[in-house]
Amino acid sequence: MKRTGIVLGLAAALMFSFFMAAPAAAQDKMTFEEYQADLDRWAQREQAAQTQIATLQGEIDALKQRIKGLDDQIAAVWQSIYDMLGLTKADLEEYSGKLDMLSGDIANFGRLTPEEIYQQSAKLDMLYEMHGKLAGHPAALLSQYKDVLDRLAAQLDSIKARMAKPRVINYTVVRGDYLWKIAKMKDHYGDGMKWMRIYSVNREQIDNPDLIFPDQNFSIPLDIDKNSQYLVQRGDHLYGIAESLYNDPFQWRKLYEANKDLVEDPGYIVPEMILTTPGR
Predict the structure, then answer these.
(1) pLDDT tens string 142-170
(2) For the chain, what is the HEC assignment?
(3) Could you tell me the residue ranges of all domains in the chain?
(4) Which residues face 211 on adjacent strands?
(5) Closest C-alpha to 185, from 213, 210, 207, 218
(6) Around Cβ 148, how many Cβ atoms within 10 Å?
(7) Nearest CA to 221 among 230, 212, 213, 210?
């Protein structure tokens, strides 16, 4: 009996739900006319979108034509620049590559300590030389490269300013000293053959290299100042040194005049002389 009541209750609930849902379903139904009207609205929206797409595509095509015209003008301008400089596009690309390499080399060199810069001063000279060659290239007339060259020149000068100064120590002569002995001291050169270096830079005090006096104060150059001095090597002569330093062998007279109190005969110089190099 109890089970029968439960079944009847469930049946009543289901019938109530059916009758309540029926009006809602009727409300959701769409007539054919309404469907057709809705379809027409979507078709109109699609047509409007297609028209807008066609308009935008026309504008895109016009912009592409305009860009092509500008590209052609740019190409013509560059060709006139190439012709003016006597270069090709490949020449400029090669030049740009060399400039990038120099920029990288200078950046790496700039990370060295002042002492390391001095020890590798020959490489610094080489970087200056490379910069000079690139600065003399026709491509350097272009502002894009001139700006880079100016920046690299400033970096090189900054590196040079940081370079350690040549080491020079002072030595006071004591009784029994002579130049060979002083040069051979381990704190100096450890080699008596280099006595000429001491004589070269102290010749104002030394009338006779075989005769020095106690209490004289000598400068002992442990390094050569490559900006103002030149250390004579075996086989050197003033003509060749001038060509190396000034790119002009006839500048040997300038060297001779600056060192004639050391160089008695311009045709004869000896190893280990330290020459003054004016006007470098």
Answers:
(1) 888 999 999 999 999 999 999 988 889 99
(2) CHHHHHHHHHHHHHHHHHHHHHHHHHHHCCCHHHHHHHHHHHHHHHHHHHHHHHHHHHHHHHHHHHHHHHHHHHHHHHHHHHHHHCCCHHHHHHHHHHHHHHHHHHHHHCCCCHHHHHHCHHHHHHHHHHHHHHHCCHHHHCHHHHHHHHHHHHHHHHHHHHCCCCCEEEEECCCCCCHHHHHHCCCCCCCHHHHHHHHHHCCCCCCECCECCCCCEEEEECCCCCCCEEECCCCCCHHHHHHHHHCCHHHHHHHHHHHCCCCCECCECCCCCEEECCCC
(3) 35-86, 87-162, 168-276
(4) 208
(5) 218
(6) 18
(7) 230
What would the two tokens of residue 176 be? Answer: 């029994």
Residue range 92-125, pLDDT digits in tens: 899 999 999 999 999 999 999 998 998 898 899 9
